[in-house]
Amino acid sequence: MAGVLALRGHDDAALGTLLSSKVNQWTLLVGSLPVAFVIGSGSAAGIILDARQTEEFILTATQTLLGFAVLVDLRLSVFEAVALLVLFAAQFPFPQPAVRLGFSAAYAVLAIALLVWRRRDLPPIARALRR
After folding, report:
1. pLDDT value at residue 2
2. Using one digit for the tens of pLDDT, what is the confidence trace for 24-74?
3. What average pLDDT does the segment 18-22 reach?
4. How far apart, in Å, are the Cα atoms of 126 and each of 8, 29, 50, 64, 130?
5. Alpha helices of 8-119 — where are they, by DSSP H?
6. CA distances from 30 to 3, 27, 35 (A)
7. How far is CA 85 from CA 80, 90, 105, 119, in A?
8. Mind listing the pLDDT tens digit for each residue in 106-124?
């Protein structure tokens, strides 16, 4: 859907669709997975993740944080899009946990740097969340 909107020149709607789908995905994943686990297992002990699952969760969370930091100014430049794609694709040849956790650290550092740099764009987002 976002691709169709972008091809038709509706850039804002395409970006909004992508953001909405990511927020919905994380809300459903992080919010409903523990509930489904409790219902399925009959225990509230929590989900036990192995090392690979933990690393994937951290990697996905830091990618999401970087995506948020990039989009805080409600613009996505070609450079930012290409940088996100390159960072995302660069992790696949490296299945080693240390390398993947290194990518997570890089995502987090870049995100924090971008959020500090774009700190003037954060108050309007906070006000919109309160509404």
Report:
1. 65
2. 676 666 677 778 888 887 777 777 888 888 888 888 888 888 888 888 887
3. 69
4. 31, 23, 35, 18, 6
5. 11-41, 51-71, 78-90, 97-117
6. 26, 6, 9
7. 9, 8, 17, 24
8. 999 999 999 999 999 888 8
Whose CA is closest to 70, among 112, 103, 30? 112
Instruction: Specify the pLDDT at position 26.
Output: 66
Tell me the two tokens of residue 22: 């990511």
Supply the pTM of this predicted model: 0.73
Whole-angstrom Cα distance, residue 48 to residue 34?
11
Q: What one-character DSSP code corresponds to residue 131?
A: -
Q: How far apart are CA 10 and CA 109, in angstroms?
A: 32
* Cα–Cα distance, 119 to 44 (Å, whole number): 39
For residue 91, give both structure tokens: 């992790």
d(CA 5, CA 17) in angstroms, rounded, equals 9
